[in-house]
Amino acid sequence: MPSTTVTVGSAVGLHARPAAVIAQAATETGAEVTLAVAGEEPVDAGSALLIMTLGAAQGDEVTVESDDEAAMKVVADLVAKDLDA
Fold first, then answer.
1. CA proximity to 78, closest of 31, 14, 32
2. What band does 1 get if pLDDT is binned at 50, 70 and 90?
3. Residue 57 CB-density burial (10 A; 0-12 exposed, 13-18 middle, 19+ buried)
4. Cα–Cα dist 61/13, whole Å
5. What are the distances in angstroms from CA 46 to CA 19, 20, 77, 85?
6. Fewest CB atoms within 10 Å of the CB: 14, 25, 54, 61?
7. pLDDT digits 0-9 by tens, 33-80
8. How far is it, in rounded angstroms, from Cα 78 to Cα 10?
């Protein structure tokens, strides 16, 4: 499955608000998209709760994976963006 690695841009990491925005966007793509931090199992990007379990802080690298490259780009762009700004 194609993947890309991005750096978390949100000032306080992937907490509730950024996770909800990312999950909604991932769900709207209609494609399966996963997120993972190094050494951990990937989680469904369509679930805000699962995204928060990653414990990803600002500056951490997250791998975004999907067979749908457009969906992968949408999610990767959001992970890299400061959604708290």
1. 14
2. confident
3. middle
4. 11
5. 9, 9, 15, 22
6. 61
7. 999 999 999 999 999 999 999 999 999 999 999 999 999 999 999 999
8. 9
Calculate the alpha carbon distances from 49 to 2, 24, 25, 67, 69 in Å.
24, 12, 14, 22, 24
Q: Which residues are catalytic?
A: 15
